[in-house]
Amino acid sequence: TQSTWDETVELAGSPEIRANATAKATVAAFAASEGHAHPRVVELPKTPEGLGFNVMGGKEQNSPIYISRIIPNGVADRSGGLKRGDQLLSVNGVSVENEHHERAVDLLKQAQGKVKLVVRYTPKVLEEMEARFDRQKARRGVR
Known about the structure:
By secondary structure, this protein is an alpha+beta fold. The chain is built from four helices and six strands; from the N terminus they run H-E-E-E-H-E-E-H-E-H. The chain has a four-stranded antiparallel beta sheet. The chain has a two-stranded antiparallel ribbon with strand order 2-3. The termini are far apart.
C-alpha cells in the first residue's frame, strides 16, 4: 500500500496578510532546504572524558565555529543532541559568534557540571569551510 500526505493551510485575513504569511513560509522553507535551522539548546554533562566533540573554525579563519566531529560513544554521541555541522553560537550563555577558535575551546574546557550550548545546524557552510581548508592545505603541500 502507498499513502500520500498532503497538508493545506487556510489563511484568513486580507490579501496583504495572506501574501506576507506565504512569503514568510517560503523564506523558512528555502532556509531549511539550504540547511539553515533555528537555533536550539543542547545540554551536556561535563565528564572527565570531556564533552565528546571537536570544533573547527573561528574569527582568525574568517569562519564561524563548528562541530567538526562527534567522538563515537562520547558524551555528545550518547546524548544525541549535537550533529556534525552544528554551528556553535554560545557556551553557557557566552556568545562565541565572531570569536577566535581558542576562546571557544577555553570556554568549553572551563565549563563544569552541565554545559549549555546553543547551536544551529548549517552543514552546507561546514562543507564549504572544509573544502576551503583542504584547498589551503593543498597549496601549502601539506598532506
